[in-house]
Amino acid sequence: MIINPQGFGDDVIAWTDQMTFLVGDDAPNCMRLDDPKEWREWAMCIVGSQDVLGQDSPDPYAFSTWQAWAERLFQTQDFSG
To answer: Cβ distance 27 to 54 under 8 Å?
Structure first.
């Protein structure tokens, strides 16, 4: 499950904290993000995961902001059940 980044403003730490909790079983390499400038490195734990979550994840290095990447990540997920 991916959390919609809208509503987090520019607080990448708050968003990644929530995401780390939710994807912990599927992406065990995701650790807490401490430096907002390193959001792309954090995002690579999602991209590199072997399950459905990581298969269609966009490359964070193709985005200039974490919000744009996170919104695209949110759009890649199928929530139809």
So the answer is: yes
Who's near 26: CB < 8 A, 6+ residues apart? 49, 51, 53, 54
Are 33 and 39 spatial neighbours (Cβ–Cβ below 8 Å)?
Answer: yes
Specify the DSSP class assigned to residue 59: P
With beta carbons less than 8 A apart as the criterion, state whether 73 and 59 touch. Answer: no
Reported pTM: 0.83
Of the candidates 60, 34, 35, the residue with the CA atom closest to the CA atom of residue 45: 60
Between CA 11 and CA 60 the distance in angstroms is 17
pLDDT tier at 50 (50, 70, 90 boundaries)?
A: low
